[in-house]
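Researcher: Please translate sequence to structure tokens.
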Amino acid sequence: MLPLLRALQIARERELDLVEVAPNAEPPVCRLLDYDKFRYQQTKREREARKAHKPILVREVRFRTRIATHDRDSKVRQIRRFLEDGTKVKVTVMFRGREITHTDLGLQLLRNVAEEVKSQAKLEQPPIMETRNLYMVLAPLAQKTVKASPAAKGETEGAQAQAQAQDP
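Model: Translation complete:
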């Protein structure tokens, strides 16, 4: 434990700053450092973290209740492409005019779409009615499968064979 005046004197001699690191500690903890350099490095780290951060994209695919089967299949393929890219998909059914009285048709359409892509997506948000739109959000399934190269596969098989040969 160093008295405050002595610590300030050492900081001036070394041309550094006395920075309080943990004010709530008993006694408070201070460090000698070049504060300008410290702030520069801190902002640089924050900038790098922002660069590395990948924003979560949500793509939207809109349907109408009276959509033809070919058009629906085309949009389902589009949804699958978005999911393969790792983006979330907001699937919306728009109601116009008197269609709003048949929300069950829109709900059935959303269920069918979710059923078709269930191998690639999980239902993140169930169907919700918002004004004249019915929507749900699909999120891609986490795919952590790593394919081993044939050479690596052969090496692991060879190591297993050796281990079995050594065991009596």
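Researcher: Any highlights?
Model: The chain has two domains: 4-52, 58-140.
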